[in-house]
Amino acid sequence: MNRDASWAYRNEFHESFARTYFRRFGDGLVSSVGVGTYLGDATDERDDAYYTAIREALATGVNVIDTAINYRHQRSERVVGRAVADSDVAREAILLATKGGFVPFDGEHPDDPGAYVREEFPDYEFVRGNCLDPGFVGESLDRSLENLGVDSVDLYYLHNPEVQLEEHDSETVYDMIEAAFTRLEERAAAGDIDHYGVATWEGLRVPAPHESYLSLPEIVRRARAASNAAGTTSTHLRALQLPFNARMADAFTVESHAGPEGQQSALWFAHEAGLDVFASAPLLQGELATEGGLPDGVAERLDGETTAQKAINFARSAPGVTSALVGMGTVEHVAENVAAGEYSPLGADGFDAVFE
């Protein structure tokens, strides 16, 4: 993604949306509703549906696409690559993000997963299918670039590094993260990625005593050390991905990260540290899209025609959130989800009032 192309994209669509729909990411602009590609069976039929939906999203005002090498056994990356290549939207106008860290099966779940891992990745050790070894991260990135059919990705995440805490102490895991960051700094210097980040499920939104807790100040410190080790002029750490929705608001309510003036939530720390946040699971895998799915007292504060749109706008209202990543497996879902951007998110006072 580059500045001129993303601004041109914004200029084409911004009049269709309410204020703050497009938001800054670096020197570019991105839609505050993004396409997620996690859900769905590993079938050709689902590939075809995703292909059509992604092209429709790009054509109607969404320029953020999020995937991962392990999603649907590499099928999600491959269909994203085809959809982007065949879209009328310039590649340079799109924020393309993917993740590495989990074993990527190839097209389908193998009959013997253990044998597949031993054959494909004999040099690495895994914790529940997760590995942060720099070699594995580098190989995963190479496969992702091939799957996506691109020379570089805009944002590359380490995927759920907190899984490693199941077998290793926190200092060892931070060392692993720093080593992986160093490899990503090298790949950024080589032009293979523009930025990198950390995608988590629990790690950044739980209190410090939790067994899955990861410290944002320590992650930032390790990124700076990685930049120094790689000889880059400044760290390429840019973004966080974490779940945020009306029933999982821990990233805003749990103050577990040490800031300059005391403990802060993950969202506030990221906001003040200049890290973009991409909110996953804004619909909680569909649970919040049904009538009555939003908690009492929340729905009436939010604008939107449907419950799903209100849930998306809750995630878009949180401080520091750049984009809410929504699964869009059909054209009908695209139309409903993109239309959430026609309504303004809550202002700061209105968002705070939800928690009073």
Automatic annotation (TrEMBL):
<dbReference type="GO" id="GO:0005829">
    <property type="term" value="C:cytosol"/>
</dbReference>
<feature type="domain" description="NADP-dependent oxidoreductase">
    <location>
        <begin position="34"/>
        <end position="201"/>
    </location>
</feature>
<protein>
    <submittedName>
        <fullName>Aldo/keto reductase</fullName>
    </submittedName>
</protein>
<dbReference type="InterPro" id="IPR036812">
    <property type="entry name" value="NAD(P)_OxRdtase_dom_sf"/>
</dbReference>
<dbReference type="InterPro" id="IPR020471">
    <property type="entry name" value="AKR"/>
</dbReference>
<dbReference type="Pfam" id="PF00248">
    <property type="entry name" value="Aldo_ket_red"/>
</dbReference>
<dbReference type="InterPro" id="IPR023210">
    <property type="entry name" value="NADP_OxRdtase_dom"/>
</dbReference>
<dbReference type="GO" id="GO:0016491">
    <property type="term" value="F:oxidoreductase activity"/>
</dbReference>
